Amino acid sequence: MVDKEAVLEEARRAREGKEEHPGRIYRVITFPLVGRLFGIEVDYVERVVRIRELRVADVPGVPEYVVGVTAVGG
After folding, report:
1. What is the pLDDT of residues 12-68, one digit of tens each?
2. Which of 65, 1, 11, 70 is closest to 33 using CA atoms?
3. Torsion of CA 41, 44, 50, 54, to 10 degrees
4. Which of 3-7, 56-60, 70-74 is most confident?
5. In 3-state terms, what secondary structure has residue 29?
6. Beta bridge partners of residue 28, listed in sequence order
7. Cα separation, 67 vs 57, whole angstroms
8. pLDDT digit string (tens) for 23-33?
9. Reduced to 3 states, what is the DSSP secondary structure of residue 14?
């Protein structure tokens, strides 16, 4: 299990220029979302699934920003 607090603390230190491992090389996967580019270290990624390959089911009564739900099998 990933220690969420440790990840957030490392990100905060990196933003402030106080990272514990200066010069560390980060391997990241980037992805666009709502017109912005996001990234996550590959160590925290289990798999990549393209949205267009998924069947998305509508969910009644949810806010319009919720596209739907899907199941990603193992």
Report:
1. 777 777 666 667 777 888 888 888 888 888 988 888 877 676 778 889 999 988 888
2. 65
3. -160
4. 56-60
5. strand
6. 41
7. 8
8. 777 788 888 88
9. helix
| Assigned token pair, 15 | 């933003």
The answer to whether residues 45 and 29 touch, using CB atoms and an 8 Å cutoff, is yes
CA atoms within 13 A on the CB side of 61: 0
Compute how many other C-beta atoms are within 10 angstroms of the C-beta atom of residue 28.
Answer: 13
What is the CB-side half-sphere exposure of residue 10 using CA atoms within 13 A? 13
What six digits make up the tokens of 54? Answer: 């998924």
In three-state secondary structure terms, 5 is helix
